[in-house]
Amino acid sequence: MRQAGRTASEILHHLTTLIAPGVTTGAIDHAASQLMSQRGVKSAFLGYRKFPGHICISLNEEVVHGIGSHRAIAYGDIVKMDVGIIQDGWVGDNATSVAVGIIDPGVEMLLADTERILMQAIALARPGNRVGDISHHVESESKKCGYSVVREFVGHGVGRKLHEDPQVPNFGKRGTGPKLKPGMTLAIEPMINMGCADVKILADKWTAVTADGRPSAHFEHTVLVTESEPEVLTWPGKTLSK
Ligand code: MG
Q1: What's the gap in Å between 160 CA and the centre of ligand 1?
Q2: 158 partner at 20 to 30 Å CA-CA among 28, 41, 75, 122?
Q3: SS (H, E, C) 111-156
Q4: Are residues 118 and 142 in contact, defined by beta-carbon separation less than 8 angstroms?
């Protein structure tokens, strides 16, 4: 899991350096497929329920599950990339949101807040806490900022398979849900909308967009619950304390 997480994070980081105005989302997907084959790993997404891309790449009001195409990235866009790989039978899953040039300050704040909320949620992934503590934190912090959280898609356990139990919703009640235990590996992934929480699915049957067309942000890490501080497997060499 550590190795898969490291590889997933390195590929995601490499892809962020390729984001620029004029580059197509399909070119980013192609670069991802090359990086994966160079490292001898496979996309965890390609073919999953017939998903056609190597990564998910979603712009602006697209929340998650966007498919690389000939659409060119534009100055002022926000680009969300979700990279999941399988290495030696283990999955690493992570996502980030990138601003292309100078963007609207409110949207820039949405990205910063979403990443901060993810990091705070990760710090709650400790034995004795429950999944609901993570869920509640993401929801309440988002509301405090005037945002809303997506309810249709949730974080998840991750391991041999991309999606394992337990689900890790971005909404919920403190003190509820499964107890966190050392050895659990979770993909924690707030999807936070600037406007309303509702999403709809485009005709490609994959791309989720906000119902009101306002921007959405997404950050994700694969996290190992340990006896003490959580270990971020998709952020090599780092741990987070409360
Ligand atoms: Mg995930």
Answers
A1: 13
A2: 28
A3: HHHHHHHHHHHHHCCCECEEHHHHHHHHHHHHHHCCCEECCCCCEE
A4: no
CA of 227 to the centre of ligand 1 (A): 23
Q: How many domains does the chain have?
A: 1
E strand or H helix at 209, and its extent? strand 208-210
Q: 155 C-alpha to center of ligand 1: Å?
A: 6
Query: Distance, CA 132 to ligand 1 centroid (Å)?
Result: 17
Domain that includes residue 194, residue range: 2-232
| Residue 237 domain-assigned (yes or no) | no
Residues flanking ion ligand 1, Cβ below 5 Å: 93, 187
pLDDT of 238 > 70? The answer is no
Q: Is residue 180 part of a domain?
A: yes
Peptide bond into 166 cis (omega under 30): yes
CA of 88 to the centre of ligand 1 (A): 19
- Residue 238 inside a domain? The answer is no
Instruction: Report CA(96)–ligand 1 centroid distance (Å).
Output: 11
| Tokens found for residue 32 | 């991802």
Residue 242 lies in a domain: no
- A 10 A CB-CB count for 75 gives 11
Q: Which two tokens stand for residue 162?
A: 């991309």
CATH classification of the domain holding 14: 3.90.230.10
Question: For the sheet containing 164-168, what is the strand order?
Answer: 164-168, 155-157, 185-188, 221-224, 231-232
User: How far is the centre of ligand 1, averaged over its atoms, from the C-alpha of 131 (Å)?
Assistant: 15
Q: 162 alpha carbon to ligand 1 midpoint, in Å?
A: 7
> What is this structure's pTM?
0.96
